Amino acid sequence: MVSQSERRQATIAAILAAARRRFAQKGFAETTIDDIAEAGGVAKGAVYHHFSSKEEILERVMDQLTEEIAAAVPIAAQGGKDPLDAMTRGTQKYLSLIAEPAARRILLIDGPAVLGWDKWREIDQRHFSRLLRVPMAALLQGKKTPREIDAICHLLTGAVTEAALVTATAKDPQRTAREMAKSFRALLSGVLGTAMGD
């Protein structure tokens, strides 16, 4: 017998999956709660029972999508022959995934416009901050203070964010992702070389 908690989770999952499809296809502004309810096979009242607003649904969808992309980055990085190569591979994977049409629309267009950059950064940092900071801290340990490492990671994150925006609007996103990752590798090499006294 299905429990009430399981029914609740199934309803929420259906709402979020439907919202994600609609946001990707039509955009946030053109998607209504009625659209989401119909696509999810639930009553409109059920949507409002679990979510206070369409913006809250978007935030949850963004969080899910960001988490999925973040989970794929370390897998891609595992193929690296050294930490620098691993970070380059992970960055290329991130750029290629965020340039996909659904991710581009939800994460790079509607998300910041609807929820604001502060909320976007909060979600992004929740899932991605450790992916850059952990290897950089290991590489720079004893050579830079924790505050200096934080500053470097913030600057590198800004570079990756800009690369994501460029990649997502490129005519050939996959090629651009490769080019941006290669350039990011050069940037990392410079940062690490300078920091380590090379």
Could you give a quick summary of the protein structure above?
With 198 residues, the protein is mostly helical. The chain folds into two domains: 1-51, Homeodomain-like (Arc Repressor Mutant, subunit A), CATH 1.10.10; 54-195, Orthogonal Bundle (Tetracycline Repressor, domain 2).
Features:
single chain; mainly alpha; Arc Repressor Mutant, subunit A; 198 residues; Tetracycline Repressor, domain 2; 0% strand; elongated
When the domains are counted, the total is 2
Termini distance?
Answer: 65 Å
Unreliable segments of 5+ consecutive residues: none
Please outline the major beta sheet.
none
Shape: elongated
> Roughly what percent helix?
over 70%
Structure description:
The chain is mainly α and 198 residues long. The mean pLDDT is 93. It is elongated and about 60 Å long. The protein has nine helices and no strands. It has two domains: 1-51, Homeodomain-like (Arc Repressor Mutant, subunit A, Orthogonal Bundle), CATH 1.10.10.60; 54-195, Tetracycline Repressor, domain 2 (Orthogonal Bundle), CATH 1.10.357. Helix 1 (4-26) crosses helix 2, helix 4 packs across helix 6 (101-115) and helix 5 packs antiparallel against helix 9.
What is the strand and helix layout of this fold?
Blueprint: H1 4-26, H2 33-40, H3 44-50, H4 54-77, H5 83-98, H6 101-115, H7 117-140, H8 146-168, H9 173-195
